[in-house]
Amino acid sequence: HNGFTHQDPGFLDVVMNKKASVVRVYLPPDANCLLSVMDHCFRSKHYVNVVVAGKHPAPQWLPMEEAVIHCTKGIGIWGWASNDKNTEPDVVMACAGDVPTLETLAAVSILREKLPDLKIRVVNVVDLMKLQRETEHPHGLNDKDFDALFTKNKPVIFAFHGYPWLIHRLTYNRTNHGNIHVRGYKEEGTITTAFDMTVLNDMDRFHLVQDVLDRLPNLGDEVAYLKQEMQDKLIEHKYYIRKNGLDMPEIRNWKWIN
């Protein structure tokens, strides 16, 4: 996992400057979504389709049938990862990209275990253009639909594959933009482990949990202990990779179990 020779998500920023009638940007979160997105792109004509995907084996968060539906919509709530159904969420955990999705789900699993009363909504974005208004891009959401996903006043922690300000650029005129906090690439990288790359850019599960805690001041006294636990995990991670040259087993072998 090298630095400047292998990392430049700014390509997305360049593409987004092109005509809305031509450009499409997709960030499939798993293997099945990648298959669905590529099937769509291979059938399309007269578009510039940008697909961001990894080169390593990917998880399968969604069965193929659900992946097709999710990719057709381009954005949606993952009910199986959320626990806010029939109520108002305390926080929205949003993600776009395979690694950001993995770290978001891992953060959600920690929060649901440690703070079971916390209401969390997970929103996954496949089609980046959905974040824009429908007046700016044909794939864009109107304000009512956007607010239905991201709420009008709740904190949104957004893990993103690229530079954070691209998300802010796409959502600057949304009702709840002031509560959107984006974690993404910030020019940190070296020859290190896969998980450490996310740690260097503050987009790992432990930082995401702390981001939630920092934006929910009414959680109570248990927050201090959970925040310290997350900080301890980051220290433990640093020592482990220096000694062993690979990520901790709990990172390498993590699976969604909620």
From TrEMBL:
<dbReference type="Pfam" id="PF03894">
    <property type="entry name" value="XFP"/>
</dbReference>
<feature type="domain" description="Xylulose 5-phosphate/Fructose 6-phosphate phosphoketolase C-terminal">
    <location>
        <begin position="55"/>
        <end position="256"/>
    </location>
</feature>
<dbReference type="Pfam" id="PF09363">
    <property type="entry name" value="XFP_C"/>
</dbReference>
<protein>
    <recommendedName>
        <fullName>Xylulose 5-phosphate/Fructose 6-phosphate phosphoketolase C-terminal domain-containing protein</fullName>
    </recommendedName>
</protein>
<comment type="similarity">
    <text>Belongs to the XFP family.</text>
</comment>
<dbReference type="InterPro" id="IPR009014">
    <property type="entry name" value="Transketo_C/PFOR_II"/>
</dbReference>
<dbReference type="InterPro" id="IPR029061">
    <property type="entry name" value="THDP-binding"/>
</dbReference>
<dbReference type="GO" id="GO:0005975">
    <property type="term" value="P:carbohydrate metabolic process"/>
</dbReference>
<dbReference type="InterPro" id="IPR018969">
    <property type="entry name" value="Xul5P/Fru6P_PKetolase_C"/>
</dbReference>
<keyword id="KW-0456">Lyase</keyword>
<dbReference type="InterPro" id="IPR005593">
    <property type="entry name" value="Xul5P/Fru6P_PKetolase"/>
</dbReference>
<dbReference type="GO" id="GO:0016832">
    <property type="term" value="F:aldehyde-lyase activity"/>
</dbReference>
